[in-house]
Every structure is written in structure tokens, then in C-alpha cells.
Amino acid sequence: MLGLVAAIPGCYRGQGDLDSAADGGDESGDEIGDDGVVDMFCEEEVLPASVSRFVRLTHRQYDNSVVHLLGVDQPPGSTFIGDPAIAGFTNNADQLRVNDPLARDYRRAAEDIAADLVADTPRLRSLLPCEPAAEGCAAEFVAEFGRRAFRRPLDAAEQAQLEAVFAGGAGLYEAGTDFEQGVAMVVEAVLQSPSFLYRSELSQPAEGAELVALGGYEIASRLSYMMWNTTPDDELLAAAEAGELSDAEGIEAHARRMLDDPRAADPIEDFHRQWLGMSKYGGLAKDPERYPEFVDGITDAMTAETLAFTRRVILEGEGTFAALMTSTESWVDPALAPIYEVEVDGPGPQWMTLDPARRAGLLTQAGFLASHAYFGGSSPIHRGVFVQRQVLCTDIPDPPGDADLELPPPDGELVTTRDRVAHHTSADACFGCHKMINEPGFAFEGYDAIGRMRTEENGVPIDSSGSITTEQGVLEFSDGVDLAHQLADDPQAQRCYLTQWFRYASARSETAADACTLDGLHQQLREGDYDVKELLVGLTQTASFRYRNAQGEQ
Fold first, then answer.
1. 18 near 189, Cβ under 8 Å?
2. Structural domain of residue 137, as residue ranges?
3. Angle, nearest 10°, between helix axes 532-539 and 216-227?
4. Among 361, 334, 371, which residue's Cα sits nearest to residue 450?
5. Buried b vs exposed e over 237-263: b needs ≥16 C-beta within 10 Å?
6. Which of these ranges, 210-219, 296-305, 393-402, has the smallest mean pLDDT?
7. Tens digits of per-residue pLDDT, 107-147?
8. What proportions of the chain, in percent to the nearest 5, are helix, strand and coil?
9. Are residues 328 and 455 in the same domain?
10. How far is CA 531 from CA 12, 232, 461, in A?
11. Residue 326 scores a pLDDT above 60
């Protein structure tokens, strides 16, 4: 119905009536503190020269925000054209543009949400800060809803524009009073505004300054979408207004408060879902003759297991990187029980402790093992590539386009998958990369294509031993459990996990300018237990979280 303020394709800023210079909140950011400290981990005041100042909400963040703001039962983000994945994550700011199809998606969603709202009187009335009959209630609603949706107070021009939108709503919907239709019209307009769809950072630098301190409302938005994947709550907006987010201590206090809130589970799940490539789980298929245990619904159980595990470890349990890599607790339902060779009481999942000689953390869970395997067998190459790229952040190129990806069949001396992979990748053109890939993949040969434990293949005992080289030296392992325990305490694996979180939390890839900060935070986490909550709080204390470079701005 209302295309008034849809974002213009290919642009960071829309051209609609509500797209004013106030998008970023504070006109000038907080001054750098008198102590000159801008980063608790790095003495150098070095920030990337070019970081996007207009960050579109991901579809997940859009959905969470409309649920938070409007109580929407079925948020529409899953119907939008998909967000692109860069460096493994779908929230890279440089790629989150609004093209024509997405602009149409936003418009359709806004129209549907507004129409549903005006037909749901109790829900609509719950949004109002006053009685509709009270004088000035429309203006009060506009100011309050606008503040929550734009994550900052409206300026005078925006207030007047939205009040005019409110007045024009009467008669445009099939249900509701004139007042209720005005509310729906404001909602429809706001949900298409760049001020809602983008996290804008427009604070200006002091004359001659190289760094721009972000304003309180800008910090509030960064915090909220990092810690909750949704819009700030009233307490965080009040903290921004009161100046509580102008220093590292105030930011830390609210970061810790937010991690204690149930909403913190959302980014924890979302990060691990993307880091582990769990989007592949739903499309998994296995040879039914070889793997009859791979039943309908098992991929849902695999997904639920891993997400529940990450929530439990980080938010309720030990909370460390080591626990993620080595814990034997798991959320097992009847579909997964045969794979783990355990019995589950009742029809639903339950927590249980698995055999520590067979299972250790994320890399020995059925979902990871099955998604990094073939239809009819295991895949040391896929599992090894994941360990090198995702766990150790090793730069492993993709195979050339003419590479032969088919393994030779079991025959003669090539009996096991390990034998076949070693033979197939032994050529000089392959071995340079595969000497890094194959060994960590061989560690998990004790698990078949669905993650079930095995001790032999084609009548030959499984050999899961090997060694890999990290920055600390050579890690010799006997099997996947042994490798997982060694990676849990390996500095390269720990720093890689930190780097992956930095990419996700910052909505961008790291640059050379971030190295000092990441090294400093890594060292501090190493001095403790590499606690994931402390990692997240630590990211909010960095210069790159609180400031931006005044040079080379997009």
C-alpha cells in the first residue's frame, strides 16, 4: 500500500520523506576520554580506514525486531531474497544492500504486518502509551514508537512527517477505527524507512580528529544487535539518553546485563549455526541400504542437539572454548540414540553424558560428521578442510576446476577410505594442500557417514591416528577425540574462534588494523579459561566497537 520510504536499490540511503540526517542519532559522538584510552587491549589507536556507516539489518535481525516491536507471530524474513554469505556469515555490512526484489519484499511485509495489526485490536492497543481519546495521543504514539523503531529519538521534522502519515491512514484499511488505521499507517511507513532497516552511524568527528567516537544511541544499537540480534530494549535506550554508554565501563555493564538475558541465546545459536555450516543439515541424504538409522526427522534432531549444546555450554555451563570442543554432554532424542548407541527414556530428547572415549564436543557430534561426509561414506577431505579453515583459520584454496574429485573404488591395497584418499591426493599438484587437509580428516575416520562409531571398514581396522602442525608445533593424535582435546587448548584454534566471532559481531572481515586488538584480546582470554562470555564482553571494549576511523569513510 505505501511505498513512500522504501530504500533505493544499490544505495546505503533511501530517498524517502523519512530519511533525514538524524538517522544516526547523536549529531556528534562522545569525546575520547581524558585518559586517552580507546582500547583496553591495544595501545595503538589504529582502526580500519573504511567501515560501512550504514548496516542493513539481516533478515534474522529484521524478524527479531518486528517481533520485539509489534508482537508479530510469523515474521516474514524467511520469504525475503536471501542474505549473501561472506567469510562464512550472512551479516557482512558491505554486502547487505537493498535491490529491487528486496525492496518489494520489505514493502509487501510492511503492508501485511500493518493489515494484520489493524485487525488485531488488543495487540494494536498494547502499542499505545495513552488512550486513543486523549488529546495528543497520536503524537505521543508517533514519538514513542518512532524512538523504539529508529533506536533513537525522532527529530522535529520526522515527528511532523509521521504525524502527517498518521492523519492520512483513515480509510486505507478494511478494519479498525480511524485512529487504529493511523497507527497501522505509521507502522507500515516506519518498517520501510532506512532509519529502521539500517543501523546508521552519523556521528561527526571533532575538528582534526582521526577517530570518531560513536554516539550513545549508535553504541546501543551495536550492543543490542551483537548481544541479542534485535533492537534495543527500553533500558538500553534510556542508558544511551543518560550518557551511560559513553565509556568502556558503562558499555561493559550493559553487555554483561544483556548476556544474562534469554535473548542472548539468539546470536549464540546463529553464530554457531553459520560457523558450523548447519544450513546443510536439512538437505542431507544418506544411502538407505547402508545407513537405515538415518530416518526422517533425524536432521532436525541433529540441529536441535548442536544448538542446545552451544546454549548450555556458553550460557549455563562452563562457558569455555574448551568445553565446546570437549564436553561429553549432549541433547539426544530417540532418532539420534542409535547413532550414539544409547537409550532415551520417553519420546522426547534428554540430556545425557556420552562415552568420553568416543565423543568430545562439537566435532564428534552426529550433525557435524554427517554434514561433512558423502551419501555413501565418510569424507576425510571435507572434515579436514573444515578443521583447517574454520577451526584453525588456515588459508586453504579451493581445488582447481579440472580436479578429479572421484576417489578410486576399494580394490587391492586400497581397502579403506583413508587408503583411497591418500593414494588419490598423492600427486605433486595435490599434495601441497592435502598434506594439511588429509591428516585432521583422518582423525574422524572412526565415524561413518552418519556419525556412528566404527572400528573397521571393509574388514580392515580403522586408523585414525596422525599429526597436524599448528603455530605451536606438531600435534600428534590417536583419533578424533584426542585431536579435539588438543585443539581445545591450542592457541591457533582459540584465536581462530575469536576471529570468527569478531567477523560475526562486527559484521565485517578483520583487517590488518585489527590485528593488535585481536592479539591483545586473545592474550587476555588465554590468561583465563577462554570464556566465551568474556570474549563477547571483550569485543565491546575494543576501539573498533566504540569508534570509527574518520578517514576514508563510506
1. yes
2. 21-215
3. 160
4. 371
5. bebbeeebbbebebbeebbebbbeeeb
6. 393-402
7. 999 999 999 999 999 999 999 999 999 999 999 999 999 99
8. 50, 10, 45
9. yes
10. 36, 25, 38
11. yes
What predicted TM-score, i.e. pTM, was given to this entire model?
0.92
Q: Residue 456 falls within a domain, yes or no?
A: yes
Please tell me whether residues 403 and 469 are part of one structural domain: yes
Q: Is residue 247 part of a domain?
A: no
**Closest by CA position to 282, among listed 301, 266, 265, 267:** 301
Q: Are residues 139 and 151 in the same domain?
A: yes
Report strand pairing: 466-470 vs 473-477.
antiparallel
| Residues 518 and 22 sit within 8 Å (Cβ to Cβ) | no
Q: What is the pLDDT of residue 428?
A: 66
Single out the residue in 171, 192, 215 at which a domain terminates: 215
Cell of 481: 577425540
- Contact yes or no for 184/173 (Cβ under 8 A): yes
114 shares a domain with 61:
yes
Q: Give residue 241's identity as a one-letter amino acid code.
A: E
Assess whether 481 and 360 both reside in one domain: yes
> What does the pLDDT look like over 229-258, one tens digit per residue?
999 999 999 999 999 999 999 999 999 999
Q: Is the pLDDT of residue 331 over 60?
A: yes
- Residue 244: inside a domain: no
Residue 467 and residue 531 in one domain: no
203 alpha carbon, distance to own chain's centre:
26
User: To which residue does cell 581524558 refer?
Assistant: 34
Residue 199 φ/ψ, nearest 5 degrees:
-90, 105
> Nearest-CA neighbor of 102 among 239, 9, 17?
9
Q: How many CB atoms lie within 10 A of CB 145?
A: 21
> Last residue of a domain, which of 215, 239, 258?
215
Average pLDDT, the chain: 90
536 falls within a domain:
yes
Q: What is the 3-state secondary structure (H, E, C) of 366-381?
A: HHHHHHCECCCCECHH
**Nearest residue to 127 (alpha-carbon basis) of 82, 68, 168, 79:** 68
Q: Rg for the chain (alpha carbons), in Å? A: 26
Q: Work out how many domains the chain is built from and give that number.
A: 3
Q: What are phi and psi of 378, to 5 degrees?
A: -75, 170
Indicate whether 201 and 325 sit together in one domain. no
Q: What are 457's three cell numbers?
A: 571398514
Phi then psi for residue 217, to 5 deg, are -70, -30
Crossing angle of the two packed helices 137-150 and 156-167, in degrees rounded to 10? 120
In a shared domain, residues 62 and 131: yes
* CB 465, CB 445: distance < 8 Å: no
